[in-house]
Amino acid sequence: MKNKRILCVVGTRPEAIKMAPVILALQKQEWADVKVLATAQHRQMLDQVLSVFGIALDYDLDIMQSNQGLTELTTRLLVALDKVLEKASPDMVLGQGDTTTVMTTSLACFYRKIAFGHVEAGLRTNDIYNPFPEEMNRVVVSHLSALHFAPTKSARDNLLRENISEGHIYVTGNTVIDALLATARKDFEIGIDLDSAKQLILLTSHRRENFGAPMRDAFTAILELVERNDTIEVLYPVHPNPNVTKPAHEILGVHSRIHLVEPLGYTQFVQAMKQAYLIISDSGGVQEEAPALGKPVLVLREETERPEAVDAGVVRLVGTNKTLIISEAEKLLFDKEYYKSMALGISPYGDGKAADRIVSILKKWLL
Ligand code: UD1
Ligand code: UDP
Fold first, then answer.
1. From 5, 43, 208, 316, active-site residue
2. Which of the chain's ends, N or C, has fewer CB atoms near its CB within 10 Å?
């Protein structure tokens, strides 16, 4: 009998990608009455992912506004979420990651004394402004959650250091690898006119702490890299935040070997990662996916909450320093031994079975 009400909340693109395997696995359980709520903190990018995974919405808060600020986003989310919690009265709410959506969802659940389960719990840089505001969101969510699904052992250790109760933490692997392996099995058309004779560099960038000068520096480095090397081309699906689109088009929009495109659907993006020689990104999810596909990543950040791939030598932090970005990228382009040392094809974040583990744990807690 479907008598346990589980409300799964998604707000942004990466939350939908990482929650999709959990939602799909829960929907197969005879004991679970699963409902999906989209805050739609992201609109187009969220809808892209939901349609790829065939996930229908039960509630849509349709919250996104152009160039939204953190305070007004937080306020609007809290009010709207509370109304659904009152109506749906779930036994358990699940959310993923460190966005404003997950932080407000955990708080709204706390105010109604509803259990919240946190997927991808325990990531930390221990620097509240890097990434901003995600690091503080993570801390807040951890202290409001009843169950913590930590992707790795080091994430579990972070939670234990903050006195989170050991019996409520489970190391499950990251559900992003479930989504990736299910998607990467097949080949897709990217739908962009790329030159197969060139080495493809895939670029993404969206972090708030890089807005302004750091992001402009990183883009200037990419432009110089392309100008210095006629063997490469860059594919950059530009995040629609106006703080990103403006410098991206101003600095990178002029070169014939730089393809600035709209955000790619998940299947197209996975295909682009598969075809890339090298990935340059500040994305959290990409740092987890690319190593599993054997692709080196240069990370446009000073710190990361995902140390496992850095420790394994397959991801390197380069920040937004122009000289370092160019020198590290050229080393990977020209030093084949160095390239091989970063293209190992290891998956420190999961084995593709995280969602099944999460569902088994939920069953144990709820039944
Ligand atoms: C958010 C998350 C970040 C996550 C990222 C994933 C917060 C504070 N930030 O950052 O942790 O890494 O999503 O991509 O939770 N926009 C659109 N269409 C879309 C999506 C966004 O036009 O489909 C534009 C809108 O102008 C929107 C702006 O991007 O106001 C910013 O969106 P927001 O979710 O506030 O921040 P992100 O930078 O996307
Ligand atoms: N992604 C996508 N299309 C794109 C760029 C990225 O589907 O054009 C996917 C990517 O595979 C990863 C996720 O989006 O799973 C990462 O999202 P983002 O970088 O926006 O957020 P973060 O992971 O940094 O929170």
1. 208
2. N
